[in-house]
Amino acid sequence: MDSFELNKIAGGLLATLLFAMGVGIVADTLFKPKAPLVAGYALPAAEAAGSAAPAAAAAPAEPMPVRLAKGDLKKGETNIKACTACHSLEKGGPNKVGPTLYGVVDRAKGAAAGFNYSAGIKERAAKGEKWDYESLDAFITAPKGYIASTMMGYAGLPDPAKRADLLVYLRSLSDNPAPLPAQ
């Protein structure tokens, strides 16, 4: 093979690469994606800290006893399915990523045997606090807003009616269900 043949092969290869690069440049100019105005998306807890409107929405429209009286056990059973990824619901069930929820209503905070709680829960447990309806409602609304150091990765449930359904179902997960608060 002489040098003329090698030059033709090298020229053809370089022309092909130059053509591919040119097609790439033209395609980039024709089909340039639009950059988002804001990177990512806002989490519900971040919105609550940033504006006054969500703070007003966070206050319950009705008192806890009224909401619990309207709570639906079947809807609560449906709503709790998201919780079962991290929590067990059966009596004597194991701790998973989160502690077992059987008997959680009116249980002392940080009392699930064998579970390593966050520092915030341990502090509240040391004060003798219990998971009553009000504290569970506040925690389910925004876990990191209720206890900043919690390891729970759940964003929260803003709908008071769904929280009431969930609390009614959690109440049923007990050998001796806690009494509902008086109206």
Structural summary, described in words:
The chain is mainly alpha-helical. It folds into two domains: 1-31; 64-172, Cytochrome c-like domain (Cytochrome Bc1 Complex, Chain D, domain 2, Orthogonal Bundle), CATH 1.10.760.10. It is built from nine helices and no strands. The chain is elongated, with a radius of gyration of 28 Å. Mean pLDDT is 87; it is low at 46-57.
Name the features:
183 residues, mainly alpha, Cytochrome Bc1 Complex, Chain D, domain 2, 9 helices, 49% helix, elongated
Tell me what the CATH architecture of the largest domain is.
Orthogonal Bundle
By CATH, the superfamily of the largest domain comes out as Cytochrome c-like domain
| Count of β-strands | 0
Percent range for β-strand residues: under 5%
CATH topology of the largest domain: Cytochrome Bc1 Complex, Chain D, domain 2
Helix content: 40-55%
Oligomeric state, counting identical vs distinct chains:
single chain
- CATH class group of the largest domain: Mainly Alpha
Number of domains: 2
